[in-house]
């Protein structure tokens, strides 16, 4: 039986320099595998738009998409801290809309906290959501929802001007009341400095060592094949296993090798009685 961790555990883990493990999940099976494997946290990311729904960016993802996947993940991982991602335009417009939509993730999908993208410019939204009693994780660096403004899915903070802006973003997220922050695709030197500067836990995806690591399950399991970011380490090639299994199934059905007697339900009354009944139908 897994013991669910919470904010006080994550803060203590930072103090004790213990790594937090974090993975995305979008459905019941992967969520349950992650919980069984002993993961500390799960993110139901709006990356689901790309790795599950087949869009070429995350922006088309709706609140309803997120709610549906969050609910499935919660059913798969009842004893894990789960972060629900706020999709594009669910929080940008106003504090009221942000609080309303964050509340839906908590109330309807039983999420433990929410994550939203941005630093200085979303600080008022973070403040409003936290004031409503909802724990928030910030997300800065490569923020996929604003990839258009960033010139694509590009690493951030590689020059001093941009790094300075990201440090201000990190401070703004902390001051607004977020209990932790995710930094994505920034240089490890900058990540180390932000970890040192902030009192809240700092998690990394593609940003080197930090207080914990996040991976996209579809990348690390080898399920997403459109592209593989430089920072991904693939721990399995599930796409290859699945494709090969389906290829074998197609071959066996075509060759009459499946199904066999082992894959059917047998009758529980004498065959003669069935044959009699079939004959009655033929004659009617
Ligand atoms: O949606 C997501 O999975 C994310 C990660 C890319 C950090 O926000």
Explain what the structure shows.
The chain has helices spanning 7-15, 28-36, 48-51, 63-76, 95-107, 123-131, 147-150, 160-175, 188-197, 217-220, 238-254, 271-283, and strands spanning 20-24, 41-44, 81-85, 113-117, 136-141, 180-184, 202-205, 212-215. The model has no long low-confidence stretch (mean pLDDT 97). It has an 8-stranded parallel beta barrel, surrounded by 6 helices. The chain is built from 12 helices and 8 strands. Helix 2 crosses helix 4 (63-76) and helix 5 packs across helix 6. It folds into 2 domains: 7-236, TIM Barrel; 241-283, no CATH class. With 284 residues, it is α/β, with parallel strands linked by helices. Helix content is 43%, strand content 13%. Bound molecules: 3-methyl-2-oxobutanoic acid (KIV).
